[in-house]
Design a protein that fits this description.
single chain, mainly alpha, two-stranded antiparallel ribbon, 2 strands, about 55% helix, globular, YdjM-like, membrane, transmembrane helix, Metal-dependent hydrolase, hydrolase activity
Amino acid sequence: MMGTSHAISGAAAWIAITGAVPILSSGAAPLDPVGVLAGAVVCAGAALLPDADHHRATVAQAVPVLGRVATGLIGTLSGGHRHGAHSPIGVAVATLLAWLLSLVIVPVGGIGDIAVGAAAGTAALTCFAVKARDLVRTWPAAWLAGGALALVIVVVVPEQLAWFPGAVAVGYVAHLAGDVLTTGGLPGLWWPWVPRPPAILADLPVLGRIWQVNGYVALPILGDTGSWREKAFAGLLALYVTIAAGYEVLRAMGIDPLALV
């Protein structure tokens, strides 16, 4: 999947889990409108994290020089693009780091405890999300948007940052799910062990595309990365996010959306 598709899939996954819009949300982990909306932005950014194993990824461009160095290191440690960073181990590591980041709290006299770690993570992931979706034109503007959202949450509703590790986990998994739906596939659940199919199975028309000769697994209903099917799917997700986000905005304003129907 392309970065723009990953970002919108992360936002959609978060809203589906935490939102309140009837039918379109599962209600599995309901949050108030602020948590749904802010979390959707953070989750969109987190959905770009697995591609930190590639030097051309969105996250690699966020900070000059340092971004490419960091993604190069991640790529080397994880075995290259779509290897370790695109596995359950990658999910676990990212979630653990997000949780550890959320523990970084600094007491500020007259204000109270400030969750600077989660705030910094929120700023960075928001920056990735708005740039991937081309909502801003430059990286400085993206960082400004990320810092603004983090500041608002820290100052106005600091308790909202409790969902930060969860948003990272959901966004990360959304990315992996998206890649499985393309022809490239993923190394499967057992990385670094990537078992290859027996030759007799690899030659079968359908199974050969699902369990590929390199051991990767795919359900390629979206075709190649950047295909018209992927773009159409991303368009549907964007429509979903727009409708559901509008519902949450009305809730935040104290308006019952159902009463307007």
